[in-house]
Design brief:
By secondary structure, the protein is mainly beta. It is built from 1 helix and 10 strands, in the order E-E-E-E-E-E-E-E-E-H-E. The longest helix has 7 residues, at about 205-210.
């Protein structure tokens, strides 16, 4: 079945047009690169959505009804906004594969993300959180984790439970140490620790490199 798309990218929109809600069969809704400050709660009526782009706007919060989009299984773009938190209801998005929350104002890693068990790629760069919850280990399908330019000083040892992870990007964090449990990650192919001046020597990194993992230092 072909995608049913409404593309309102870069239309200088200050509000979502009312006619958006006339088509409840939408599977792709693109509202990126506008000047939206509010997303109406009616977004939760679009039960067939598979992909939603809200990136590059002026959003400070999201409606709880976004959690009603339980069939979304493609992309959810929330990057380049002014979000300080995510609604708890987003934990219901179990089928979502790609989430981008980069370039927001998140001072704590959003716990609802740790319930998105279908995630394959998570981009959470350029925020302000200083730690990751151990519950991130629930993301057993995750292959890419992008955490560049936050305030992380270490990672939880439970990170090793991300057994499908291929890429871990930690650039530009004030990291002081990393858990040796990272050695237990069987599919890790790349770890990026460039632009970090605070990291203490970690002899076990050589063992990771010896087994074929690329380490960008």
């Amino acid at each position: 079945m072909p995608d049913h798309v409404l593309n309102l990218w870069k239309k200088n929109l200050r509000s979502v047009p009312d006619e958006t809600w006339n088509d409840l069969g939408l599977t792709v809704l693109i509202l990126g690169d506008n000047v939206l400050s509010v997303i109406p709660s009616r977004i939760g009526e679009l039960h067939y959505l598979r992909t939603l782009d809200l990136g590059h706007n002026r959003l400070t919060e999201l409606p709880a009804e976004l959690g009603n989009l339980t069939e979304i299984n493609g992309f959810l773009y929330l990057h380049d906004n002014r979000l300080e938190s995510l609604p708890r209801s987003l934990e219901r998005l179990k089928k979502l594969k790609y989430l981008n929350i980069s370039h927001n104002r998140l001072s704590a890693f959003p716990e609802p993300i740790c319930h998105m068990s279908g995630l394959v790629e998570l981009r959470a760069t350029d925020n302000q959180f200083s730690d990751l919850p151990s519950s991130i280990a629930r993301l057993r399908q995750l292959r890419e984790l992008h955490l560049r330019n936050n305030r992380l000083r270490t990672l939880p040892s439970a990170i090793a439970e991300l057994s499908e992870l291929r890429l871990l990007d930690l650039r530009g964090n004030p990291i002081e140490t990393l858990p040796e449990s990272i050695l237990e990650m069987p599919r890790l192919e790349k770890i990026d620790i460039r632009w970090i001046s605070t990291l203490q020597p970690l002899p076990w990194l050589d063992r990771l490199e010896d087994r074929g993992c690329l380490i960008y230092r």
